[in-house]
Write a structure and sequence with these properties.
With 682 residues, this protein is an all-alpha fold. The protein has helices at 2-20, 29-57, 80-92, 102-117, 126-133, 137-157, 161-174, 179-193, 201-213, 237-245, 255-268, 285-308, 315-326, 329-348, 352-372, 380-404, 412-439, 444-450, 456-464, 466-485, 490-499, 527-547, 552-560, 568-576, 596-614, 621-637, 648-665, 674-678; strands at 69-70, 75-78, 98-100, 197-199, 219-222, 227-229. It folds into three domains: 2-58 and 252-440, no CATH class; 98-199, no CATH class; 453-665, Hypothetical protein af1432 (Orthogonal Bundle). Helices cover 65% and strands 3% of the residues. Helix 6 (137-157) crosses helix 7, helix 12 packs antiparallel against helix 13 (315-326) and helix 20 packs antiparallel against helix 21. The protein starts with a helix and ends with a helix.
């Protein structure tokens, strides 16, 4: 019962979130814009493709085909035209069913009696009677006897007109009549027996239907690559149905295709309801527009390449590369899968086999892409290589699917896979800076560039605040090492560490790491002012970041690296001097860290500062471990990690990483005396 209630609450929450997305509140407008862009792009692509290409190149029932169509998959189908033709031929061979009518049978008996009685002048026409009367009495008597005898037998034995004729001639040949007598007898019998049979239309129709139904349907089998329609061949309704089953569209406007794709996009675009809702930091408007732009460009290129490349493309590689390099892994996976499948439907139609193929390839690309780009590449060449290898993997999957599913396959497919892998890898790298500048997204390459010592802000820190520069280097080393152990974005963490203290450039001498030996400006000013100056470096850093147009992701490190902690030293100093102060006067503005990356930099910053503040080496490892543990858990006790989902195991990993690096940097350097080493006495 408890499980049922929990499930009900989850369902209610989902629908509440879904309905919330329909509201036109400020934070939801970006979703509507995002969906509207995708729907519009899909509609334009499908409509434009039909107007400029399909309308002119695709087949029309009743007209010759403009090109040769090949089978894409193995199929068996009934050739209804051939089946109908065979059944019509079989039915046409069935002659009319002749039946005896009782009244007509009585008339035949009367005529036979008339012949027997010699009153037959009225039965036969004048020419026949003249011929009969010209014969001798003996011939007339013999003919009359034979007509009477054979007429009775044929009447009872023959089933149809043809059978009557055969029996008459058979019995006449066996008679003793001469040939001329036989001819006269045959004509007389034909007149006497002719009315005895008539056609039964109902029975004939039933018989023909039975015969027609017994003819089996004509089953055709096509294999991938076999010709369905030759160029110039008339496209019949049956051929058109076959082409449709192979996924070939006709020249009519694809209303079903358009409506189906738009409905799929409308349904799929609700993924933020269950994906983004799990993020502490929601996607910005720029990020939503970036995803829409990537999908729009990829769909367009998919359609273009599919037309130029003979029905094969790898646009899912573009979606995978751009999104895996710029978005969180959990988010990019869902966008890649859905966007990849929709791109296939836009370019190749909504045939179930095509959709299944797109689902497999898109899922594989998303999964393998996560593996390839889990580790941060260090240069453009390595990224191009990873993209190229990923493209080759997709090519292998496509080849295997074509072979396993019986889809049309030729030698061009492996060559196309290699070619498209190289082309797409180049396109991805070429357009990546454009995405970065237009939508303020961070790729691995941009993070590498921002982390380089030649960057203007980093050079300023080196010159104007050398102590801060060494501090940031150490913080970056600590945070990146822990990030690598936790499979986080180490490049982002390192870049964030390098820029988190850029606000100190405004007043570098007010920070202890930049002060000369024995000089401390804070000894000459009040603790309140000292606290304000130190706290202001967060605001100053954000101002510098905005001036230098640093990415939004790096600004978060500046704003969150102190969270809402209190400047304890100057607060306690002010209280000791008897000043009436509160903790809020010495509290950083925050916010608290809202991502694992910014939280990691906060911990590394605090630990490095605490270790350096000792100003002496550690006597043993346990002393260092105790200090690191104390600093880390002080942040936990102060609720600074409340919005971050670090587990206890991960906290242990972070702590161990910090200790391992710090023990090599802050160890004691005891050097034995040379005399002691040689055993000589002083």
């Amino acid at each position: 019962m408890a499980g049922g209630e929990k499930r009900k609450r989850q369902i209610d929450k989902f629908f509440y979130q879904a309905l919330t997305k329909f509201s036109l509140e400020e934070q939801n407008r970006q979703y509507f814009v995002f969906r509207a862009i995708l729907l519009l792009v899909a509609a334009v692509l499908i409509s434009g493709n039909w107007y400029f290409i399909d309308r002119r190149q695709n087949y029309t029932v009743g007209y010759p085909a403009d090109k040769t169509y090949f089978a894409l998959t193995s199929a068996r189908y009934e050739d209804k035209a051939a089946t109908l033709e065979l059944r019509q031929k079989a039915a046409s061979r069935i002659i009319d069913v002749m039946v005896q009518d009782e009244k007509i049978a009585a008339e035949v008996s009367r005529r036979l009696d008339s012949v027997k009685n010699g009153s037959y002048a009225s039965l036969f026409n004048a020419p026949l009677m003249d011929l009969f009367n010209s014969l001798s009495d003996g011939s007339r008597r013999r003919i009359t006897e034979v007509v009477e005898k054979i007429g009775s037998r044929v009447r009872d034995e023959a089933a149809d007109r043809e059978g009557q004729t055969s029996l008459i001639w058979k019995y006449l040949r066996d008679s003793a009549l001469t040939q001329s007598e036989r001819n006269v007898a045959f004509q007389m019998l034909d007149v006497v027996l002719n009315p005895s049979l008539q056609s039964d239309a109902e029975m004939t129709s039933r018989l023909r239907e039975d015969v027609s139904d017994q003819i089996p349907a004509v089953i055709r089998e096509v294999r991938p690559g076999s010709v369905l329609v030759q160029k110039g061949q008339l496209v019949t309704p049956s051929i058109a149905k076959l082409l449709q089953s192979q996924g070939y569209p006709d020249a009519r406007f694809p209303f079903k295709h358009l409506i189906f794709v738009l409905l799929i996009i409308a349904a799929w675009s609700f993924w933020p309801v269950w994906i983004e809702s799990g993020f502490k930091d929601k996607l910005s408007y720029n990020e939503w527009m970036y995803i829409a732009a990537v999908l729009s460009v990829s769909w367009t290129l998919e359609l273009v390449f599919a037309r130029l490349g003979g029905g094969y493309s790898m646009a899912v590689l573009a979606i995978t590369g751009w999104l895996c390099l710029t978005l969180p892994v959990s988010l990019s996976y869902h966008v890649i899968v859905g966007g990849g499948v929709i791109s296939v439907m836009i370019a190749f139609g909504t045939d179930p086999g095509i959709i299944a193929l797109g689902c497999v390839v898109a899922s594989f690309a998303a999964g393998i892409g996560r593996v390839f780009f889990l580790e941060s590449p260090n240069n453009r060449v390595s990224i191009w290589k990873d993209l190229f290898i990923l493209g080759l993997c997709l090519g292998v999957v496509s080849v295997c699917l074509h072979w396993g599913l019986g889809i049309y396959f030729d030698y061009k497919l492996p060559i196309s896979c290699v070619l498209y892998s190289a082309v797409w890898a180049t396109i991805i790298l070429a357009l990546l800076p454009l995405w970065e500048n237009l939508f303020d997204v961070l790729s691995q390459l941009r993070l590498l560039e921002l982390s380089h010592p030649s960057q203007p802000l980093i050079k300023r820190i080196q010159i104007e605040a050398p102590g801060t520069y060494h501090h940031t280097l150490m913080v970056g080393t600590l945070a990146e090492a822990a990030a690598d152990q936790l499979h986080m974005n180490g490049l982002l963490v390192r870049a964030g560490a390098y820029y988190h203290d850029i606000g100190k450039l405004k007043n570098p001498r007010f920070f202890v790491e930049n002060q000369l030996q024995g000089e401390n400006i804070h000894d000459k000013i009040s603790p309140v002012l000292s606290g304000r100056i130190l706290i202001s470096h967060v605001r100053d850093g954000l101002e510098i970041a905005e001036e230098q147009k640093l990415p939004k992701a790096l600004r978060r490190f500046i704003a969150e690296h102190h969270g809402t902690t209190v400047q304890k030293y100057f607060y306690e100093k002010a209280k000791a001097l008897g000043e009436n102060v509160t903790e809020d006067q010495f509290r950083y503005p925050g916010p608290r860290p809202r991502s694992r990356e910014t939280a990691l930099v906060m911990l590394a910053d605090s630990v490095e500062a605490a270790v350096k503040a000792r100003n002496k080496p550690f006597d043993d490892l346990k002393e260092l471990q105790a200090l690191v543990h104390k600093v880390i858990y002080s942040k936990i006790d102060a609720n600074q990690l409340k919005d971050v989902d670090f587990t206890m195991r991960e906290m242990s990993v972070i702590e161990n990483c910090f200790v391992e690096i710090l023990r090599s940097s802050y160890h004691s350097r005891e050097v034995k005396d040379i005399a002691e080493l040689t055993g000589e006495k002083k």
